[in-house]
Structure formats: C-alpha cells, structure tokens
Task: inverse folding
C-alpha cells in the first residue's frame, strides 16, 4: 500500500484540474499507467468534484475547501479516493438514479454525473462526521495491472 498525503484546496473550478491531476499523478507514480483506468478515474474525480464545487457551499458566504486523499493498495489491487468537504450534507447513495429510458425532454435535470460515478466505481460509501461530508469511492485495479 502507498498512503499518499492529502491535497486540500478551495472548492473552486479554478482548482479542478489541480485536484484531478493530483489523483492521476499518484496513480501514474505507482506504475499503474493504464489509459483506460486513468480515463475512468478522471471522469469519477471530475463528476464528484464539480458536484462539491457547485453545490456543497452554495448556502455559504465564502468558498469552502475540498480535501482529497488517494490511497492505492497494490496487494488488494484497489484505489480508494476520499473526498472531504464541510458543505451542505449530501448523501450520494440516497440520490435516485435518472430514468434513462425517458426521452431527454422528459427527464429531470441533474443526476447523470452521480449515475456515471456509480457505474464506474466498485463501492461507494458516505458518512457525515463533525460537520463534514466524507465520500469514499473504491475502484478495483485488478484488471488493469494483471
């Protein structure tokens, strides 16, 4: 296992690439350079982070922070991403998936990003502790390193 130090930055779109690249650089540094894995991780990070940036602090007078922790477990062949913010409580697991069978004109706005996250990662955990949202996403890397 490699336990990487965390990255904590203001929750702004200006910092989006910095946060995504933090995760991707950690994965690349662990000799897990697989373009498909990196692509999937980029999508997952972008969707999770954009949701936090756009919604977590919408009722606050100032910009809050996002902390990202990226742990890679080589023996268990998985990556665990932890996103921490102090914004509005939001449990991704309680959000109803969009009905993709409906025509676009009949679908409610929003929710597609969460659906994408759920379809890419293997495990999602959420809890709220000490006024913080903690979202944990686990992705198996077994198929990418064998």
Result:
């Amino acid at each position: 296992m490699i336990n990487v130090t965390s990255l904590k930055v203001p929750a702004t779109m200006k910092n989006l690439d910095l946060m995504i690249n933090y995760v991707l650089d950690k994965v690349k540094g662990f000799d897990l350079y697989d373009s498909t894995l990196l692509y999937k991780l980029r999508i997952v990070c972008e969707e999770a982070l954009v949701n936090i940036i756009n919604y977590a602090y919408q009722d606050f007078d100032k910009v809050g922070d996002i902390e990202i922790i990226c742990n890679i477990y080589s023996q268990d062949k998985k990556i665990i991403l932890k996103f921490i913010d102090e914004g509005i409580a939001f449990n991704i697991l309680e959000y109803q998936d969009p009905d993709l069978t409906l025509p676009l004109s009949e679908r409610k706005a929003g929710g597609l990003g969460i659906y994408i996250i759920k379809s890419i990662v293997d495990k999602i955990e959420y809890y709220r502790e000490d006024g913080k949202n903690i979202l944990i996403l686990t992705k198996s890397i077994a198929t990418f390193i064998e």
Summary: Residues 2-145 form a domain with the Heat Shock Protein 90 fold (CATH 3.30.565.10). The chain has four helices and six strands. The chain has a mean pLDDT of 84.
